[in-house]
Automatic annotation (TrEMBL):
The chain crosses the membrane at residues 81-109, 195-219, 239-257. Residues 161-180 are annotated as: Disordered. PROSITE patterns: ZF_RING_2, ZF_RING_CH. One of its GO terms (molecular function) is zinc ion binding. This is RING-CH-type domain-containing protein. Signal peptide: none annotated. Keywords: Membrane, Metal-binding, Transmembrane, Transmembrane helix, Zinc, Zinc-finger. The keyword Zinc applies. Pfam families: RINGv (PF12906).
């Protein structure tokens, strides 16, 4: 037997999976012994099935896409759906649909609890040690202010002039007419109406969640209560309304960003599982 043949046999005998520690004899059960990354030496080889199990069960999310030792990003076998996981158009479209669904759901929540959005809250929580601000009441005050702003703005007749202004008496029937359909409302008008009803709740929830970490809930609540308790006079400057709208826009954009990030992660995770065949790297 030649020296080269002996050397190749010795190298084959030395191949060992870095996960299960078995060698070539286990390929029938655990798949081919490959080198999927740039690691060298005793940790360079791994069985295909051992690697897949590690990627799917590892506590580190990055382990699904790259080697935890050398940080080399695995090369996936090309399939018909390759690239979909990272396609910004696809991810953006799915994110927009998901975000729209959330806003539509929020519009029905707003309608169902319309009596709670008729007037701003008035409760305060004092003690000798702190002043407590309820995040739920801050979100409620923001929604009340936003609905009043939308009502006063008219929005081309989408909103009826029926947001109540009285604090007294039982639930106003005018609030129940907020979503009363026109004789021929049309799909687009109904969709816009629903979207505008749900967007303040989504923006308020996202904004309150963001402000919880920085402690600025109290000024935002004061501003929302101030704007929710007043009506805009003709031709008067409405700085409070502009600030409320800007804050809710920031919250809505933050919510959209979170939805995009979640959709991107889920899409990448799901689609790359269909491209699970990892190519071997020639790192000689």
């Amino acid at each position: 037997m030649s020296d080269s043949t002996a050397t190749n046999n010795n190298q084959a005998e030395e191949k060992q999976c870095r996960i299960c520690l078995d060698g070539l004899e286990a390929e029938g059960e655990l798949g081919k012994l490959i080198r999927p990354c740039l690691c060298r030496g005793s940790i360079s080889y791994v069985h295909v099935k051992c690697l897949q199990t590690w990627r799917n069960t590892s506590a580190s999310r990055s382990a699904f896409f790259s080697c935890p030792q050398c940080h080399y990003k695995y090369r996936f076998a090309r399939t018909r759906i390759v690239g979909l996981a990272s396609n910004p158009v696809l991810v953006g479209g799915l994110s927009a649909l998901f975000f729209t669904f959330i806003v539509m759901l929020a519009s029905y929540i707003t309608t169902y609890f319309m009596s709670a959005f008729e007037e701003p809250t008035s409760s305060s929580y004092y003690s000798s040690w702190f002043f407590y601000v309820s995040p739920l009441e801050v979100a409620q005050d923001l929604v009340v202010a936003a609905l009043r702003i939308l009502k006063e703005g008219g929005i081309d007749g989408i909103f009826d002039d029926n947001i109540p202004t009285s604090r007294n008496g039982p639930r106003s029937r005018r609030s129940e007419r907020l979503l009363r359909p026109d004789p021929n409302p049309g799909f687009i008008k109904r969709f816009i109406k629903r979207f505008l009803l749900g967007l303040p709740l989504v923006g308020a929830g996202s904004l309150v969640h963001m402000l919880l970490s920085v402690g600025y809930l109290l000024p935002v609540q004061w501003l929302a209560r101030y704007r929710g308790n007043r009506n805009r006079r003709d031709n008067s400057r409405d700085l409070a309304a502009l600030i409320v709208v800007a804050l809710l826009a920031v919250g809505a954009l933050r919510a959209l960003l979170k939805v995009y990030q979640l959709t991107h992660s889920m899409t990448q995770r799901l689609l790359l599982r269909a491209e699970d065949a990892i190519l071997e790297v020639n790192n000689d």
